[in-house]
Structures are given as structure tokens and as C-alpha cells.
């Protein structure tokens, strides 16, 4: 992925009428209802955007949605890309680089995740304070895009303290139990074994998923403050593990989503 391809995508999106979006949002599995609250101005299929991959996961819409929420112009990805779909890390993170060119100032990411921390419950929300990258590739490998960021970006604080503090304040005000923890990102698409869940707990993970970290790495590279919230959709107790049911995961995500929508709306209002 090079700057020419990134500009091609950004130019096309601008020509459709996307003007000065302020906040970028990446919506994860089962977390699309936030868009019901958006005053949508236009929606663009990924298939129409030059150089964009296609979302192949059946419960991801595959659209870029532009509109207004709480007075903020937002650009939301209704459906994200994953390494397990066969895309390169540069393809997965192309939309984040495009958002930067379009003027996005802050990035909000959501995902569905498995709970490694056994104090968590299904449908809990976890504010990601830090992460462990267990993916086998990195979106910054290869020639550096000097125009967008440094060769060796710092990752000591990958998640914006300002945004995280705002979210914690909002959670207190709205009486929402917002956990704070460490997210481990793995390639998938299979779920983990009992031994792998034990390992993840030992190395300090509170939740595990198959996304988010590539986008966060690139957001840090390009200097875009970001925050991320996981909805805990299943509990990964290695001593009491049951086969995964995707319908149960979607249901748990939908319950947690109601609290997530409140947090994101209030965050936009306070930004």
C-alpha cells in the first residue's frame, strides 16, 4: 500500500460528498446499531472505493457511513477487515490512513472479545488500556510512509489518555460498569484451546480478539488519538470451556451494545 493508493481512496470518498469528518468509528461484530442514532448523509459501499478490501464476514455490512451525531461529523466503518480473511495488514489498515487524509481527528474502535479475566461477565464493556500483539504481521513492515508518520513510532501509550479518561468519567456519570484491561489480538479464525487461554491469562491479557491492534498501531503511526472498547461476548474459562455458538456471541454483543452506544454518544458530545 502506497500514498498514491491511499490518496485515490480518499479522493473518491471526498468526491462523494464526505467533507471534514471529525471522528472516525470502527464498528465490530454485532455492534452496528450505533448507526441508527446517526443523521446519515451518505453511505458508500466498500466495493465502490478504489483499493478498499471487501468485508467477507457475513454479519459485517461493508459500508462507509458519513453523517452527524451530537454535532460531530463522523465517518463510520460498518464492518471491518481481519487478517484471517486473507488481507494484508496494509489492506486492513488502509481505511485508517484514508481517514487521516480526510481530516479525522479522533478514532473510536469497538470489538467483540472473549473474556480471559474470569471476573468479567458476558456483555461487560472493557476499555482497552493496553494490548498484546500476537498477530504474525505488522502494518508498518516495509517502506515507511514518511508523509504520514515516523519509522519507529512510540507505543508506550497506544490509547489516548484523554479519550480514556473521558470514557471513564462518562461511565461513572451513567452508572455503567466499564472495565479497564489488556486486549490480546490473535489471528484466528479458530478460537483458542484451553492451553492457549491459560497462556493468555498468564501473560496478562484480560480479553482476546482478532482485530483492533493493527488499526491502533497505524493510528499511533499517523498521530491520530484513539480509544477502543471491547464487548465481552463469551467467557474463556479453560477449566469450564464450552463449544462456541456464534448466535450466543451476537446476542451478548447486542446487550453490551446498548451501553456502548450511550458511552460513544456522550463521548462525541464532550469532544
What does this structure look like?
- This protein is an alpha/beta fold and 271 residues long.
- The chain has a single domain, classed as Rossmann fold (3-Layer(aba) Sandwich), CATH 3.40.50.1580.
- The chain is 31% helix and 24% strand.
- The protein is built from six helices and nine strands, in the order αββββαββαβαβαβα.
- The chain has helices at 3-15, 89-102, 161-173, 194-202, 213-221, 246-270; strands at 23-27, 39-45, 63-69, 72-78, 106-115, 125-133, 178-185, 207-209, 226-235.
- Strands 5-8-7-6-9 form a five-stranded mixed beta barrel.
- The longest helix is centred in the last third of the chain and has 25 residues, at 246-270.
- The radius of gyration is 17 Å and the shape is globular.
- The two termini are 32 Å apart.
Helix count from the secondary structure assignment: 6
Overall 3D geometry?
Answer: globular
The CATH class: Alpha Beta
How would you write the strand order of the largest sheet? 5-8-7-6-9
What's the domain count? 1
The termini sit apart by 32 Å
Oligomer: single chain
- The CATH homologous superfamily name equals Nucleoside phosphorylase domain
Query: What is the H-and-E element order?
Result: HEEEEHEEHEHEHEH
CATH fold-level label: Rossmann fold
Amino acid at each position: 500500500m502506497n500514498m498514491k493508493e491511499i490518496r485515490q481512496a480518499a479522493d473518491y470518498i471526498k468526491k462523494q460528498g464526505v467533507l471534514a469528518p471529525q471522528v472516525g468509528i470502527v464498528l465490530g461484530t454485532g455492534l452496528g446499531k450505533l448507526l441508527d442514532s446517526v443523521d446519515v448523509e451518505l453511505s458508500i459501499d466498500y466495493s465502490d472505493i478504489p483499493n478498499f478490501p471487501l468485508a467477507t464476514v457475513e454479519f459485517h455490512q461493508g459500508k462507509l457511513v458519513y453523517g452527524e451525531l451530537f454535532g460531530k461529523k463522523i465517518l463510520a466503518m460498518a464492518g471491518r477487515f481481519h487478517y484471517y480473511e486473507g488481507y494484508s495488514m496494509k489492506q486492513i489498515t488502509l481505511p485508517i490512513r484514508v481517514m487521516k487524509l480526510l481530516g479525522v481527528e479522533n478514532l473510536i474502535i469497538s470489538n467483540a472479545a472473549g473474556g480471559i479475566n474470569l471476573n468479567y461477565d458476558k456483555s461487560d464493556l472493557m476499555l482497552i488500556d493496553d494490548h498484546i500483539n500476537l498477530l504474525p504481521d505488522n502494518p508498518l513492515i516495509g517502506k515507511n510512509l514518511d508523509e504520514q508518520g515516523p519509522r519507529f513510532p512510540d507505543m508506550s501509550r497506544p490509547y489516548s489518555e484523554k479519550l480514556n479518561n473521558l470514557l471513564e468519567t462518562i461511565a461513572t456519570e451513567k452508572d455503567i460498569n466499564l472495565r479497564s484491561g489488556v486486549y490480546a489480538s490473535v489471528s484466528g479464525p479458530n478460537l483458542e484451546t484451553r492451553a492457549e487461554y491459560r497462556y493468555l491469562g498468564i501473560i496478562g491479557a484480560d480479553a482476546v480478539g482478532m482485530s483492533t491492534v493493527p488499526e491502533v498501531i497505524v493510528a499511533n503511526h499517523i498521530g491520530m488519538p484513539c480509544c477502543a472498547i471491547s464487548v465481552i461476548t463469551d467467557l474463556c474459562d479453560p477449566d469450564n470451556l464450552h463449544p462456541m455458538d456464534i448466535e450466543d456471541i451476537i446476542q451478548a454483543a447486542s446487550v453490551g451494545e446498548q451501553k456502548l452506544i450511550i458511552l460513544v454518544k456522550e463521548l462525541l458530545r464532550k469532544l
